[in-house]
Structures are given as C-alpha cells and as structure tokens.
C-alpha cells in the first residue's frame, strides 16, 4: 500500500499548470528546451501539445469569449495589450508586448542577462 497514489484533483492539475507556466522563468524557448531535454522526450511534449489543444478547443465552446480569450497582458510591464486597429491592420494573437518600447526593454534585459551568464560561465571555467 506504500505506492498508493492520491486521486487526481482539479487543484493538483491547477498546480501543474502553474508549474508549466513557470517554465517561462527559465528563459526563452531554447533555454526551456535545453533544461528539459535530458529529462523528457520531444515526442511527449508534442503529445501534450496536441492534448492541450483539444482541451482548449472544448474550453472555447464552453466558456464565454471573455473567459477564454481575455485581453492579453504585456509580458514586460503587465498592461493589457489593446488592439486599436485601423482598417488595413490585422489582429495578431501572438502579440507579447503592449508597445515597441516594452519590446525593446525586454530585448535589452535578455541581452544583459545573456552577457552576464556568459561571463559567469567563463569565470567558472577558468
């Protein structure tokens, strides 16, 4: 009975979702891939992606537009990303920043962090 597993609960699933979301703190997509590669196969990640896309499809049918697709937040400053578009512009769902200013600020942070990480690695290897 030592190996008995607890039943899966919504709370445990929500904790897992929060942990997966926290992967962004590891850095960019490539950094996450490097961190996960020794532990998980790429095919498992693909399977999970397909499963989550199916779940998202059903959630979209169940939830209201506001619940399913709220205004996205800028990943740099946290402000809502508004989509005030003129007639010739199209809405992109993959927008991550509220303005070019935030996009540039995030880029500069990444460059600074990458340079400091390289400096640390160099000093450790010496």
Task: Explain briefly what this protein structure is.
By secondary structure, the protein is mostly helical.
Topology (elements, then pairings):
Layout: H1 10-21, H2 29-36, H3 42-62, H4 65-68, H5 100-125
Any overview of this molecule?
This protein is mainly alpha-helical and 126 residues long. The chain has one domain (10-125). 56% of the residues lie in helices and 0% in strands. It is built from 5 helices and no strands. The protein has helices at residues 10-21, 29-36, 42-62, 65-68, 100-125. The termini are far apart.
Radius of gyration: 19 Å
Average pLDDT, rounded to a whole number, is 81
Our count of helices gives 5
The general outline is flat
Please give a handful of descriptors for the protein shown.
126 residues, mainly alpha, flat
């Amino acid at each position: 009975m030592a190996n008995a597993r607890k039943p899966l609960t919504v709370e445990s699933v929500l904790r897992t979702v929060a942990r997966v979301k926290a992967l962004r703190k590891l850095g960019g997509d490539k950094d996450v891939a490097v961190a996960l590669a020794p532990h998980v196969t790429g095919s498992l990640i693909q399977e999970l992606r397909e499963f989550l896309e199916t779940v998202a499809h059903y959630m979209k049918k169940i939830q209201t537009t506001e619940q399913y697709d709220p205004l996205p937040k800028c990943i740099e400053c946290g402000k809502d990303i508004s989509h005030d578009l003129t007639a010739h512009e199209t809405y992109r769902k993959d927008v991550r920043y509220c303005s070019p200013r935030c996009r540039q600020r995030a880029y500069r942070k990444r460059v600074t962090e990458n340079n400091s990480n390289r400096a640390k690695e160099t000093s450790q290897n010496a």
